[in-house]
Amino acid sequence: MIHIMDLNQRKLTKDEWNSIEIPVSANEKRIIDLIARGYHNVTIRQNSTMSLLNYLKISHSAELENYVFMKYIQPKLTTMSKKYGFMFDKVETKKCGIKKADQIRFSNTDKQILSEKTELFEFVLLDLMEKLYKYKSKQSDKWLRYHYTLKVLAKYNVDTANGVLLALVNRLSKENDKIVDIVKLVGMGESIIERNEDLMKYADEELYDHQKQLFTMCKTENPKLIQYIAPTGTGKTMSPLGLSEKHRVIFVCAARHVGLALAKAAISGHKKVAFAFGCEDAEDIRLHYFAAKDYTVNRRSGGIWKVDNTVGDKVEIMICDIKSYLPAMYYMMAFNKKENIILYWDEPTITMDYDDHEFHPIIQRNWQENQIPNVVLSSATLPQSREMQPTNADFSARFLDAEVHTIVSHDCKKTIPLIEKDGYVAMPHFLSRDYDEILAVSKQCSQNRTLMRYIDLGEAVRFITHKSVKNSIRSERYSMEQNFACVEDVTMSRVKSYYVDVLANIVPEKWGDVFEQVSVERKRHHASNIHIVTSDARTMTDGPTIFLAEDVGKVARFCLQQSGIPLTVSRELMKAIQFNSVINGKVSVLQKTYEDGTREDEGKEKKLADGRVNPEMRRVMTKISELTACVKRVELAAQFIPNSSSHLKRFDKMDEFDGRRGVDGTPFMCDISETVVEQIMLIDDVEDSWKMLLLMGVGVFAQHASVRYSEVMKRLAQEQKLFIIIASSDYIYGTNYQFCHGYISKDLGHISQEKCIQAMGRVGRNNLQQHFSMRFRDNELIAKLFREEKDRPEVKNMERLFNSC
Q1: Is the C-alpha dihedral spanning 50, 51, 55, 57 positive or negative?
Q2: With DSSP H G I counted as helix, E B as strand and the rest as coil, what are the percentages for the chain, rounded to 5?
Q3: Which of 25, 517, 643, 650 falls 20 to 30 Å from 490 in CA-CA distance?
Q4: 3-class secondary structure for 677-693?
Q5: How confident is the model at residue 212, as a pLDDT?
Q6: Are strands 341-346 and 374-378 parallel, antiparallel or unpaired?
Q7: Cβ count within 10 A of residue 163
Q8: Whose CA is closest to 519, among 438, 439, 442?
Q9: What does the pLDDT read at residue 768?
Q10: Which pLDDT belongs to residue 656?
Q11: Helices 567-598 and 615-629 sit at what angle, rounded to 10 degrees?
Q12: SS3 category, 54
């Protein structure tokens, strides 16, 4: 029996069909279009930041650029240059010959421009210049932050950004570069990179490097096996949107929600999609309306009514589960040359951590009977190419002139610190006093670059700038000055890579003293990791949290117990819930009666549309309405809802570790509407305790019979309405939902290294630079991450199953 909650190989439900039709946000749509266009031009860059000329909706010309500079930018620069003593060339009126109509347009929009100036790119640059010279005049090192930010922003590809201003910024930046103390700049790495909102807020949108490599490789004609390794949350699942520009794609996913997320994006991007979920043969395949070629029209609405699902020559992306791959393959081959099809297998390591699993024979059969000569195996934790030699050799033997490629990305734009059970940030240099073990840890980080995301930038900077560390480096070659030659070298990726290099190049005899000194100065991230719904709730900021555990029910009961809801309050709520359950039971019986009584009218569109049903069924409908109106309102006092104002006051206290109130980021609170509460209260096949938890903003995902509860929870998770989700470890493969914080329970200490990395990948998936964390209730699992794991089950199982022998 399958015990993985979201890996059921079944047909799509009505709610799942409806979910893919919900339009994505404008920002998501922009990225979808970028990926599609990026296939044809992998160097594509775009930026949605508004410039002055864009705001004014005026075409670019040299005269207009000069006029905009003189009218809106020059006055501010003149004031600054007098105050801070830098020079710039002023633009004269004679260089600004513009039409009378444009002058009128400028005068009409002056007030709007002044009100919007903080968001217009040129004014952002001016504000940074003002702060740079203000702090520089005070001889404060803070000027370095604004110098760094200004240099980065000036390179962004903002359409029609004022060239006169950019030229000035670049000239002044070169002058300031000469006096930058690079060691100080690196020492400020956390504030200038990670805590610098401007860098991401105004950043260019472009393909990830791994997407550029993938698209380029797939343009070659030879059969190919591509091992596609990149961190979770960096766009791998959306890459088929680009591939489908030229190829037909079969997207195989064990976790249905991943496939549905791709489908939603594809449909928003006007791609033609088909679905093969729970298929026994090709007759079970279903086309989305965009992909339909033969269909009948609904006479009343004028829209598509019945689709002929056997005609699939318009399908660009086939999305299927593991069970349905072979029917999907034969279906796509019926309409396309197999050489033009790409098998894109998402997370092929799913279930590979089990010695035996019912998916294993299906996976092996899919590989053995696969006829598609272009295969992408996509996963953050795919075994290295050297570990997949049997699979590589097997593929090369089956397809003539086949090539095997490996894409390994270690994108590191975000930091997701790992927090130990006592609230300390876990770092490689804290793992052992034994330097031989530290060398092994350093090697593991170098070979598994995905781990770089979980090296805390602030802690890395504190280590490499620590006096004891600088005095213990074995060679001048590893000094900061030798590794950061200019301001452009100071990036998150470079700093973290340097940290790992330094860790591997300490004089061994000095490591003991270094370890002692850096450990003594270690500070806690926050008080603890266990008071989830009480005192620690305030540390869960900016977005939802996921708590992964083997025994989901135990964690749920613990949360209820910890909440401190008085017995009297709990009893009253439970009475109301149970009363509603009785009502729901009666409503369910009546609804069944109504469905049976109206079944004979099915197909009689006009009669049902006019509401003409027999009197007896009308009375049933009236009774249902009367009973539904009796449902009692169930509401929990705000003081028991994590991070409500009343709850925060209840646990309000000074942070005993750093002397300041609160934490970084905004404490996140659930947003459960009364309508949703009523929906949950009327579900009769879920435990009442879970309904109580929902009132607190806690959703529980586990294997149970209540499809209705699961669908509501999925919708709330998708919309980021829940404070926390409690789920089994296998749920990690079934969600692309956005989480800012995560917990890994004590009872998951046995999970494999790869599965742990997959679990950590649930956090930090959005594009914002928010405050993230991954919290462990067992420190040994953290240590396991940074040590080479031999005899890995994923490697053995892939060697066995992805093989024709």
Answers
A1: negative
A2: 50, 10, 40
A3: 517
A4: HHHHHCCCCCCHHHHHH
A5: 96
A6: parallel
A7: 13
A8: 438
A9: 61
A10: 43
A11: 170
A12: helix
pLDDT for res 283: 87
Per-residue pLDDT, 553: 87
In this structure, the dihedral spanned by the alpha carbons of residues 94, 96, 97 and 101, taken in order and rounded to 10 degrees, is -140
Sign of CA dihedral 150, 151, 154, 156: negative
- 175: its two tokens: 């002058």
Cβ(189)–Cβ(216) below 8 Å: no
Which residues lie below 8 Å from residue 709, measured CB to CB, with a gap of 6+? 680, 683, 685, 686, 690
Burial of residue 501 (CB within 10 Å: 0-12, 13-18, 19+) is middle
Q: Are 475 and 176 in contact (CB under 8 A)?
A: no
pLDDT of residue 730: 64
Closest CA to 557 of 578, 529, 581, 533: 533
The secondary structure element, H or E, covering residue 149 is: helix 143-154
Tokens 């209730």 belong to: 777
The CA distance from 572 to 695, in Å, is 14
Question: For tokens 């043969």, what's the residue?
Answer: 281
Nearest Cα residue to 683 out of 574, 579, 578, 581: 581
Residue 762, classed as helix, strand or coil, is coil
- Judge contact between 342 and 250, C-beta under 8 A: yes
Which tokens in the block code for residue 214? Answer: 């993938």
- How large is the angle between the packed helices 163-177 and 121-137, nearest 10 degrees? 30
Residue 144 CA to residue 539 CA, distance in Å, equals: 30
| Token representation of residue 332 | 């796509």
| Four-residue CA torsion sign, 293, 294, 295, 296 | positive
User: Looking at residue 306, what is its pLDDT?
Assistant: 74
Predicted pLDDT of residue 2:
31
Q: Which residues of the chain have pLDDT under 70?
A: 1-9, 94-95, 105, 108, 111, 114-118, 294-305, 412, 527, 599-613, 653-663, 703-705, 730-736, 766-769
Please identify which residue in the block is written with the tokens 């299927």: 320
Pairing of strands 374-378, 224-229: parallel
Nearest to 526 by CA among 219, 741, 285: 741
Domains of the chain: 52-201 (no CATH), 207-408 (3.40.50.300), 425-522 (no CATH), 537-565+636-785 (3.40.50.300)
Query: Is-above-0.90 flag for pTM?
Result: no
Report how far residue 547's alpha carbon sits from residue 305's, in angstroms, rounded to the nearest whole number: 43
Name the one residue in this structure whose structure tokens are 């540390």. Answer: 539
